[in-house]
Amino acid sequence: MAKFLEFQGKEWLRKAGLPVPHGRVASTPEEAKQIAEEIGKPVAVKGQVQAGGRGKAGIVKLVNTPDEAAVVAAEILAKTVGGTPVQQVLIEEKLDIKKEYYCSFVVNGAREARSPMLMFSTEGGMDIESVPEELLFKVNIDPINGLQIYDAIDVCAQAGIPAQDLSKFASFLTKLSQAYKKYDCQTLEINPFIMTGSGDLVCADCKMEIDNSSVGRHPEFGISIARDLPGAPTELDLIGWSIEETDARGTGFLMNMGYDEVSPGCIGYHPIGGGSAMMGLDALNQVGLKPANYADTSGNPVGSKIYRVAKSVLSQPNIDGYLLGGFMMANQEQWHHAHAIVKVLREILPTQKPGLPCVLLLCGNREDESLEILRKGLADLMTPDGPGKRIEIYGKEHVTDTKFIGQRLFVLSQEYRAEKVAQGK
User: Fold this and answer.
1) What is the Cα–Cα distance from 189 to 205, expressed in whole angstroms?
2) Among 206, 208, 244, which residue's Cα sits nearest to residue 227?
3) Do 221 and 21 touch, CB atoms closer than 8 A?
4) Helix 66-77 vs helix 29-39: angle between axes, to the nearest 10 degrees?
5) Cα–Cα dist 242/149, whole Å
6) For the ATP-grasp domain, which residue ranges apply (predicted)?
7) 238: confidence class by pLDDT, cuts 50, 70, 90
8) Which domains are delineated in the chain?
9) What is the model's pLDDT at position 229?
10) Would you call 382 helix, strand, or coil by DSSP?
11) Which residue among 97, 99, 316, 418 has its CA within the 20 to 30 Å range from the CA of 324?
């Protein structure tokens, strides 16, 4: 799902006519101070990362003056949460909180539902998992007509909202439901939304996740990659998305794993299928190697698409090896992989990465022909002193043997790194 940061989600809520606190985002302590001065009263300083429990992580603070906002912003911007550095802080007005509430709109995948669902609780501001089941009220929503006002009133009444406030709460929830549908959300969670001392309902937080399949309908979002990523897209992520976006024949998924480019033991990782991918990760983990990336070419893609993915994987700087992990008896024609891999290795190894370990495991339909294509196409590279001297080719005899494949890659990568050190590279 394409995920928005809190300040981004709140901006789209504001455009949909929903109440959000006054404020904006800052990237430096100086900007934080300026925004706090513009607001002119106590503010909240909130680190912007894709992570829950931000209060517990110490990146949400309340301050009284612009100078305090600058100091706290500097502290928060120096933090890393869940492996992600905090690069922005949201500076917004401190709210006069009378009571906190929770609501979220999600997809109910149960067979008897298969519809959007509203979850509502008068216990907001807590981890939803810690809210007692009897205090969490749910209602399925008609996917065509959205949340009806009478359903919203009913769920609020069940939760114990006073009669005089039912209309206010129901109107707030139905408007959120309309935004959920309008923006093609997968999840829209407001935790908490609050009632102020004057009785207004305000979205104090916002978690908004958009259905990847709908991104093409929303150019206004400016989403460059309709894909789940741990952080901002890297160059490799953009390359991988361009492959998949322009060629729908089979899968050509490719993404960066956020590794340190100078760290030893990173392997260019190219599995074939999801189950195969898990077994390949086991092979790497068993010997202490790390995947530099995640790639997948399954669903019977054409050779040209496999070539583009494999070349992107192999072009990564400082990798210590390449694993083509076909840990499944694939029902696709494997000679497409064989032709693509031969072409890529003949382009990469002689001039860019001579001696790079390449463990190629390929099995399934047309396996014998595919292995023969690999052996013949790479034979002149695989001489003892050739640029492909560390290429090893395996078939179905090792289809589930993750320990063997991992050990072979480990031994070869150790030789390769020692050779590079000896050459002063």
Assistant:
1) 8
2) 244
3) no
4) 140
5) 43
6) 10-234
7) confident
8) 22-93 (3.30.1490.20), 97-221 (3.30.470.20), 235-423 (3.40.50.261)
9) 66
10) coil
11) 418
